[in-house]
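Entry: Beta-phosphoglucomutase
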Amino acid sequence: MEEKFIDAVVFDLDGVITDSAHYHFLAWRELARELGISINEVFNERLKGVSRMDSLELILQEGNLQNDFTLSEKATMAEKKNLHYCEFLKKLTPQDIMPGILELITNIKIEGISIGLASVSRNASTVLKALKLEDTFDYVVDAAKVKKSKPDPEIFLTACKQLDANPKRTIGIEDASAGIDSIKASEMFAVGVGNTLNKADYKVHSTKELQWELIKAEYKKWIER
């Protein structure tokens, strides 16, 4: 298949490029503990791909505290969580790039296809710098300017617009259900990394299985349906 059939590939960050998703969990768990709320890895699945404030609301609902704080107090809590997260980020190095990702990006770029990053994390630039990937992506969506969180398609459609890519000729790669929903709502081809992402058009168990030739083959089947 010629590369002209694919305009761009748009990646999620946490859980796809690196496992900073786990750091988000640790930071949220620390804040939750301070509020007397207990959350675990199972609950954390609900937070993946969700914005900071929406994640906080889910945690407060878990402790039945959603009506106990003002918007200002909630904003302070969210910032406190971010400070916890940034402390964890100091441990990140290029060794923390997920298996298979560098090879995948290289193979995409060889074909002259644009790549973008669509993460709800407002720390995306910090993460990319720690991983030494700050100059890798052709466009990185500024999460602070995105009004609607995943599963809304806004973030992926923004990436497509800035990359001058037709969403129907664009591939999105995600590890969260909300992210897959966002990609599908954008009318893009959805690649899911994880066993539970059954709405994905193509699913792999881990990033090391993200082989460009296999993705292209599945994408070709999709557009020819």
